[in-house]
């Protein structure tokens, strides 16, 4: 009996949805509202030099800087809250509250503070990505085995030894789970920031095409943004599998 391949079913589902979209868009016949996948692909190819050389690099830079800052802030807060109950009681409610504020409402404020520079987009990206990193890393640090910790203490291990040899390895699976969520959200954060105020970027280009009622031009950078998010997710997955080979063996 052949083993079921979930990737095959996913691929078939995507093909079916694209075919339905294609025929539906052709029947609707209003490409400025609902372009077909074929029109989007043609526009993406036609604008490849503009999108890949001019607008993709600024967006990717925003994503990279935002994720780097989120990892530093998120991991730092998680370690601090795990080490100090006072820090946990002080910052954890603030971290939760920060996610109850609509990002779309704060983005214009960041534009007022930072102008149309890269930092207004980075601020939006950080705000939307640091939460899953912080919470997942904190939960991972708290999940370290208590019996192993007591055993290490009886064997004369210091707090530093326990942190680096037990807490950090135990938290890595949860940390990477949060990071995989964050990389997909980073694309959304960068796009939102560019939609509300930018001079270049995929989100900016999509908004500019919308003002020209170019439906395929609106969708083409969105497809590219989705591809960037998928590529980053796969990269983090590859790094996770490389660093956590011991988890598979266990």
From TrEMBL:
It is found in: Cell membrane. Its main location: membrane. GO terms for biological process: transmembrane transport. InterPro entries: MetI-like (IPR000515), MetI-like_sf (IPR035906). Residues 56-240 form the ABC transmembrane type-1 domain. Keywords: Cell membrane, Membrane, Transmembrane, Transmembrane helix, Transport. It is a multi-pass membrane protein. Gene3D superfamilies: MetI-like (1.10.3720.10). One of its GO terms (cellular component) is plasma membrane. The chain crosses the membrane at residues 7-28, 60-80, 92-116, 122-141, 175-198, 218-239. PANTHER family: ABC TRANSPORTER PERMEASE PROTEIN HI_0355-RELATED, ALKANE SULFONATE ABC TRANSPORTER-RELATED, MEMBRANE SUBUNIT. Belongs to the binding-protein-dependent transport system permease family. This is Putative hydroxymethylpyrimidine transport system permease protein. It comes from Cytobacillus oceanisediminis.
């Amino acid at each position: 009996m052949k083993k079921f391949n979930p990737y095959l079913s996913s691929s078939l589902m995507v093909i079916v949805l694209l075919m339905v979209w294609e025929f539906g868009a052709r029947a609707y016949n209003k490409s400025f509202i609902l372009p077909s996948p074929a029109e989007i692909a043609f526009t993406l190819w036609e604008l490849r030099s503009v999108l890949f050389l001019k607008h993709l690099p600024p967006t990717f830079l925003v994503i990279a800087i935002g994720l780097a800052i989120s990892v530093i802030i998120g991991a730092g807060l998680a370690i601090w809250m795990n080490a100090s109950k006072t820090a946990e009681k002080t910052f954890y409610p603030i971290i939760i509250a920060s996610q109850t504020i609509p990002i779309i409402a704060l983005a214009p404020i960041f534009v007022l503070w930072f102008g149309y520079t890269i930092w207004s987009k980075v601020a939006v990206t950080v705000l939307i990505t640091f939460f899953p990193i912080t919470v997942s890393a904190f939960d991972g640090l708290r999940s370290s085995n208590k019996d192993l910790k007591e055993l290490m203490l009886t064997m004369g291990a210091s707090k530093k030894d326990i942190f680096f040899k037990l807490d950090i390895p135990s938290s890595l699976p949860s940390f990477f789970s949060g990071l995989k969520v964050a990389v997909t959200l980073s694309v959304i954060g960068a796009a939102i920031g560019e939609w509300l105020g930018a001079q270049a970027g995929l989100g900016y280009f999509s908004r500019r095409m919308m003002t020209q009622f170019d439906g395929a031009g609106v969708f083409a950078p969105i497809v590219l943004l989705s591809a960037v998010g998928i590529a980053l997710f796969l990269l983090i997955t590859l790094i996770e599998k490389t660093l956590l080979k011991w988890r598979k063996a266990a």
